[in-house]
Amino acid sequence: xxxxxxxxxxxxxxxxxxxxxxxxxxxxKTIVAVINSVxxxxxxxxxxxxxxxxxxxxxxxxxxxxxxILSYLPNKGKGVALRTGIRHAQEKGFxxxxxxxxxx
Length: 104
Fold this sequence. Notes:
Layout: H1 6-15, E1 18-24, H2 31-39, E2 45-50, H3 56-60, E3 68-72, H4 78-91, E4 96-99
Parallel strand pairs: 1-2, 1-4, 2-3
């Protein structure tokens, strides 16, 4: 996506009050790349760690200052993770949300 005007997308996402929600469960091999890819377009990112039992939680720590991370145990399923992310987005005043799978 080298020809994409990322600044244009960043501005549009902000203007529209749009965030990205990433539900994740045991995606230690892909979660960092997925988050880094999304951060090229917006910093309004909510990752919901759905009770991961691998090193996903540890990997997410490197993003603590730049994104929102919601975590809980035990795993409750993707539907609960999405509802948790959407609820948080609404509480933060977002009008729109894009969901992206964390498996790349």
